[in-house]
Amino acid sequence: MPTPAASNGKLNKDAFIEGVDHILTKWTALALAVENEWGGDDTEYKRENMVDEVVEFFNNAVAKRQKPEPTDLEAILLDIMTEDFNISLEDGSEKEVAARLMAIFIECINGNHSTVNKLAEEREAREARDANASAAKRSQAAARPDADGSESSSEDDDSDSDDAMDED
Description:
It is a single chain. This protein is 73% helix and 0% strand. By secondary structure, it is an all-alpha fold. The longest helix is centred in the last third of the chain and has 30 residues, at 114-143. It is globular. This is rRNA accumulation- protein. It comes from Kickxella alabastrina.
């Protein structure tokens, strides 16, 4: 069995690692764990380490000239989620994630990066959408009227305090 780096050198392995990262980033259970820091202070590090562990799983199978087994990958995903993020999955999502990781592995060893490229485009679009939504919320908060119906501004606040000082 060829390694991810066999046909196009480092390009296939890099694409595979990127694909693993994209798939794990889209996994709702993991995203919630990271967002809510269920793994403690080093939750983001644990997520990054998960990518490394998944890649290592495939590298070990290739080194032994064995086909990676989806059930073994599912067990690894469940173990990491339980041990690192204190999550007990009951939705079976590890099966779907493992299947997507297996598919991307096969694509990458064959030099096909189309799914990785599609995932990268989706992630960029999602991040841009999230950034725009955050900017819109900040803009709305800044333009929100005060209790008396007027828009708040730092100039109004400064002039009020200056007037109060003048009255003394």
